[in-house]
Amino acid sequence: MIAEGLIALVGAGVLLAVAIAVPWLKFVLTIALAKGIAVLGILLLLRAGQVSFGHAMFLATGAYTVAFLAPAMPEALLLIPLGGLFAGLLGLLVGLFVVRYRDIFFGMLNLAISMVLYSLLEKLYHLTKGTDGIRVARATYAGFDLPRETQEWLMFAIALGLAALFGTLVAAYLRSPMGRALAGIKTRETRLEFLGVSARRVLLFAYVASAVMGGIAGTLVALTTRHVTPLLGYWTSSGELVFIAILGGAGSAVGAFLGAVAFELVRVYAAASVADAWQMILGGVLLLVILFAPGGLWGILAGRLKVRA
């Protein structure tokens, strides 16, 4: 765990150095860190052997919380936790239903519910402006209306700080008895029940925690891009999160951020170089990872540094 922490610390330093050296990448790296936080939630579910194909609904919940509340309450330091709170409440409602199921049924039920939310966001034009989306009002930070450049740096710092916080919490959780019980759902759920541990409660806790992280990620995306559309909750957005989880590797919380940064950088540079084929390049990268590095980028890094993956 100490080695993993040192790697994370070095990675944070590298991201800061890149943002300073190439200022326009601040935006890309902030989005990557936000998605990494959402992917941490996917990793919790993967530890239980479950895959959510609709997890972007929580990201959209956090983003629309900012879009709806920012005109009346523009304080970013309040909007961020509120986005996580509302996403967590939605996660609790959905989780009470979906944790009864496993494997493909779990994944497809999440997908179906997320598409219901997407349809509502698209059809309720008088509230959401439909596919045109909502322009997010300018936020304040601790009551100060800061210049644009300062806001960009502050959002990057907030995203980096939250990534460190949630990464540490998830790493500690996975090593705790609750985290081990979560892993038990994948391999020996019946034995857990015999020991008096409710698999549904264990999975529900992880599901709600993953929803909160998804909501926090959505608030960061909304405050960074300042534009929210229903596409944030579409199934392709959920697919991106699963893609990043596989790319980064499910063996460590660090993998979520490795995958997210790699995904966003490949997408930006591939789209700039070959605008009509960037999806094919991303698909090729994922195929290579699955074939030659099933442990993801974290597995490769851990192997090189002889860290236990």
Describe the structure.
It is a single chain. By secondary structure, the protein is mostly helical. It has helices at residues 2-21, 25-47, 56-69, 76-98, 103-123, 125-128, 148-175, 177-194, 199-225, 235-248, 253-273, 278-292, 296-305, and strands spanning 134-135, 227-228. The longest helix has 28 residues, at 148-175. The chain has one domain (2-305): ABC transporter involved in vitamin B12 uptake, BtuC. The model has no long low-confidence stretch (mean pLDDT 87).
The span between the termini is: 10 Å
- Overall structural domain count: 1
CATH architecture: Orthogonal Bundle
**Helical fraction:** over 70%
Care to count the β-strands? Answer: 2
Structural class: mainly alpha
Radius of gyration: 19 Å
Major sheet size, sense and barrel closure: 2 strands, antiparallel
Roughly what fraction of the amino acids lie in strands?
A: under 5%
Task: Briefly note the CATH topology name.
Answer: ABC transporter involved in vitamin B12 uptake, BtuC
The coarse silhouette is: globular
Please mark out the parts with pLDDT under 50 across 5 or more consecutive residues, or reply none.
none
Total count of helical runs of at least 4 residues: 13
Sketch the topology as an H/E string, one letter per element: HHHHHHEHHHEHHHH
Query: According to CATH, what is the class?
Result: Mainly Alpha
Lateral strand order in the biggest sheet: 1-2
Provide the residue-averaged pLDDT.
Answer: 87
